[in-house]
Amino acid sequence: NMDSTLHYIHNDSDLSTNSSFSPEEERKSKVQDVVPQALLDQYLSMTDPSRAQTVDTEIAKHCAYSLPGVALTLGRQNWHCLKDTYETLASDMQWKVRRTLAFSIHELAVILGDQLTAGDLVPVFNGFLKDLDEVRIGVLKHLHDFLKLLHLDKRREYLYQLQEFLVTDNSRNWRFRAELAEQLILLLDLYSARDIYDYLRPIAFSLCADKVSSVRWISYKLVGEMVKKLYMASTSTFVTDLMNELVEKFCRCRKWSGRQTFVFICQVKCLFVHLFL
């Protein structure tokens, strides 16, 4: 019943969490009235390690893939039925299971709302940030989609961690850095002019000097959008300082590649107009 499902999804009342349950209380905590209980119990049992040995070695991955759909059906009021299963999957030994959750954590955040996301998903998200590159790429591709759902104070905490995306397990993984540049363009709308200048600017300049041309081209667009954002801000000192740094770092660079970078940046966003304002 879609109406009843939407009723549960948009119900803002979040259930309080209990620290410990007896086995009987644990069973009752997973009781709901949206779908047949036997069907839900069957789904929750997919994380049982014995089933991976006797039924399907990738059954946990299938469980992780389906979890956002199950959460959407049950609604946020019944998130307590899935919370333990989600945490079990998030710490699964197989990186493919964690990767699956990383790619869908932003969708789950939309379903659960602000309070449950901050309490139950943010710790999992933080763990994925320190995981293998195969898992980190999942949260990186939807970094903007997830951070925009957080409150401003919590969102600003991740400014200190963006620099870590420049470091990968394999230095040849240039697509990781290209995705970072794409996400930074989107993140410009979520942060203040000072945050952009203090935290995003150094990362953008580092990406502009990347060894791979595909990463550099996206970074030129990033710098252009950054200048536009700072120019539109009420505080004009940031854009002036940024323009001066562009001139010193690239326009007057001794290497031809640095001077070429300056030309490309101007070409992307016609920055020469702002230079002479």
TrEMBL record:
<dbReference type="InterPro" id="IPR016024">
    <property type="entry name" value="ARM-type_fold"/>
</dbReference>
<keyword id="KW-0677">Repeat</keyword>
<feature type="region of interest" description="Disordered">
    <location>
        <begin position="11"/>
        <end position="30"/>
    </location>
</feature>
<dbReference type="InterPro" id="IPR051023">
    <property type="entry name" value="PP2A_Regulatory_Subunit_A"/>
</dbReference>
<dbReference type="InterPro" id="IPR011989">
    <property type="entry name" value="ARM-like"/>
</dbReference>
<protein>
    <submittedName>
        <fullName>PP4R1 phosphatase</fullName>
    </submittedName>
</protein>
<dbReference type="GO" id="GO:0019888">
    <property type="term" value="F:protein phosphatase regulator activity"/>
</dbReference>
<dbReference type="GO" id="GO:0005737">
    <property type="term" value="C:cytoplasm"/>
</dbReference>
